[in-house]
Amino acid sequence: MAKSKKIKQTTAIPILLINGKKEASFFEQVYDVVRLIPKGRVSSYGAIAAYLGSKKSARMVGWAMNNAHQIQPKVPAHRVVNRNGMLSGKAHFATPTLMEELLAKEKVLLKNDCIINFAAKHWDPTIELAL
DNA sequence: TTGTTGACCTCTT
DNA sequence: CAAGAGGCCAACA
User: Fold this and answer.
1) Do the Cβ atoms of A43 and A34 come closer than 8 Å?
2) A11, A14, A18, A28: which sits with the fewest CB atoms below 10 Å from its CB?
3) What CA–CA distance (Å, rounded) separates A97 from A71?
């Protein structure tokens, strides 16, 4: 094969390369699903992880969101919350209140950093995209 | 290179 | 009912 050194399968896949490239990593799939979240709806890390294959990979979804800030097109990370409907990642946004602001613009009401009527607004890819 | 950490979830005690 | 531990994969020191 062309490469003199063996390709490290487990090693980092450059996120920037994923953008518009053939190699589809776990991260890109996360971004893709998150972009599909309709306005006014919210999803959860576990739901996305489960849709991709393993619900135990929910942590990776969180990591993907962390990198999502350097990803383009922009990923609506504010529409992704934890299983409790709580804005666990709001602190990682540009401003601690940015996530609330974005959700408020989508008519998503919050109370104590928790989404009101979360069950009704929960957009589960496993169900919505299960066609 | 190994080991620890991380925007989580589920099971077990 | 509450608290603890395990598990997943990737990035960082």
Assistant:
1) yes
2) A11
3) 21
First to last CA, chain A: 40
pLDDT in tens, A85-106: 999 999 999 999 999 999 999 9
A21-29 average pLDDT score: 68
Are the C-beta atoms of A40 and A121 separated by less than 8 Å? yes
A77 CB closer than 7 A to any strand B atom:
yes
- Please give the Cα distance from A85 to A95 (Å, whole number): 19
Task: Judge whether residue A115 contacts strand B, using its CB and a 7 Å cut-off.
Answer: no
A41 C-beta less than 7 Å away from strand B: no
Residue A21 structure tokens: 């490239």
Residue A55: band (very low, low, confident or very high) from pLDDT cuts 50, 70, 90: confident
Compute the distance between CA of residue A18 and CA of residue A131 in angstroms, rounded to an integer.
26
User: Does A55 contact strand B, using a CB cutoff of 7 Å?
Assistant: yes
Within 8 A by CB and 6+ apart from A64, the residues are A26, A27, A30, A31
